[in-house]
What we know:
Layout: H1 3-28, E1 30-33, E2 41-43, E3 50-52, E4 55-63, E5 71-76, H2 80-86, H3 107-115, E6 120-129, E7 132-138, E8 143-150
Antiparallel strand pairs: 1-4, 2-3, 4-5, 5-8, 6-7, 7-8
Amino acid sequence: MSGKLVGIIVIVATLIFGAVLYYVQVYAYYDRLDPGAVELSVVNMATQDAEPLAVDDLQAIDGSSSPIRFRACFTSIMSDTALSESYEPYAEATPLNAPGWFDCFDSVEIGEAIEAGEAMAFLGEKNIHDGVDRVIAIMPDGRGFAWHQLNEQFTDDGSEPIQ
């Protein structure tokens, strides 16, 4: 076999593998969720109970391969004042990237708004999966976002939080 033929086979195999890997990471493990099947809630500061959050225009995705693949976009019906006075803030809110095709969720914009104090982040549900919290963020214009992120209790051997 000539060197050119071997080189072409290696390049073609690499391109095919790369395309399959890209598809699997970006599309294969995500499913669009029916808006009626997704219930968003926020934790009440006084009772520490999760209460349903009234939303419109809900779009959500999730993946079965990981508990932190959940992302949602919606419009909040509640006012900023009602939210901030009633619900548990989430201090370490860090939105995770969503696949590019789920274009309503821009983690950079959400993260910058939270850091600047423009958006408010709330605890949606503590330990929705073992070691994972659901976080809800509301922008000043009423747009809302939800995602799952690892919490401080997620540990490797049960003794100390993973850094």
